[in-house]
Amino acid sequence: MTTTPAGWYPDPYGSPQLRWWDGSQWTDATHPLEGQNAPETPEPAEQETPATVPAAPAAATAQFAPPPAPPQWASAQPAPSPAWGATSQLPMPQFGAPPKPPSPLPWVLGGVGIVLVIALVVGGAFVLLNQNSEEPSIARPPATSEPVPPQTEQAPPQQQEPTPDQQQPQQPPQPSITSFPQPEDGRINDSVSGLSYKYLGEPWKVSDPKNMNAPNDPTYPLFTSGYGAVSQPGFNGQEGVDWMGTVAAAQLPQMLPYRGVQDLEVVTTTLLSAYEPIFYSIRHERQILRNEAIKVGDRDAWIIEYKMDFSAEAKAKNYKFTTETGAFVLVDMGEGKRPSFFYVSIPDNLKSEQVGDVLDSLQTH
């Protein structure tokens, strides 16, 4: 995977302004949002280390990002769309009739969503370092646009030891996955996620787990099966950094709260909001094709199917692909079990229409 490029982004600490990300950490440089007066030039100052996870169930999931910050929410909404591309708004689901007293889960999910977006960038950097030309990662490197330099020089933030009330409980590392299941009779049978799905054959190949997973990062999904195909090798001029089509399955990471079938819609929406900037880092527009409840075998599930349009970037940079069709599917596996997450995404030059074939083949195993 790749790191988020330096640039101005919405302030992760909750203030209504932009903050400068230097490619590895947040700086003290800020900038007013459009229509606001510019704030005074910030002075370098010691700052307390922000908490890495909101005060919510700390468990392993997939809305993850760089330096986490204490978010402020009004409802469980997807994380704000970052600067890499304009995407259509995903309709936010209703959580249903609130229990009495009102459940805090939608607030928690919104907070976890922002934290996941931040931590995903960190996990992305790990996977990119392990990437090679034979088995590329599913993540996409960011567009190579020049960042806007900050308007003021800021002293690097001083490292401070966290106080006892700032320390967060450590999540245990995820179990190591050393190999993915091979196809049998034209299908991938994943005993860990409990899912079975069609194997597309050549040019698709079973992936290497070390190029898809970050086992020491509980915020990133631990894929337990998957295969991929190269859409364009070295698409951005860097050898070994390939644009890929991907089909993969995992359990929902523990960090994201999940109570049961009633949470399928909001959790699937949160996953897409968090993973979109990592899986589709080229500037694009998103079109939602369907967003609905389905059945996978006899299990309840939720699907968000979409189409990503890279036409402007593809024309400017001579990419071999212009669109990509994909889907996020979350399957409830029964009481006391984590739901399973299924991801399929195929660029147009690898026959995007095959997404339908894969989704139709999805079953519980």
Counted by DSSP, the helix tally is: 4
Strand ordering within the main sheet: 6-7-8-12-11-10-9
What ranges have pLDDT less than 50 throughout 5 or more consecutive residues? 38-100, 125-157, 164-169
* Ends distance: 30 Å
Mean pLDDT: 73
How does the SSE layout of this entry go?
Blueprint lengths: L6 E4 L6 E5 L4 E7 L72 H25 L57 E4 L4 E4 L6 E2 L16 E10 L10 E9 L12 H16 L5 E12 L2 E11 L1 H7 L5 E9 L8 E8 L6 H8 L1 E2 L1
Antiparallel strand pairs: 1-2, 2-3, 4-5, 5-13, 6-7, 7-8, 8-12, 9-10, 10-11, 11-12
Helix pairs in contact: 1-2
Give a summary of the structure in a few sentences.
With 365 residues, the protein is of the alpha+beta class.
Describe what you observe in this structure:
The chain has 365 residues and is an alpha+beta fold. It is 15% helix and 24% strand. It has 4 helices and 13 strands. It has helices spanning 105-129, 264-279, 311-317, 354-361; strands at residues 7-10, 17-21, 26-32, 187-190, 195-198, 205-206, 223-232, 243-251, 285-296, 299-309, 323-331, 340-347, 363-364. A 7-stranded antiparallel beta sheet has the order 6-7-8-12-11-10-9, with helices on both faces. The longest helix has 25 residues, at 105-129. 42% of the residues are buried.
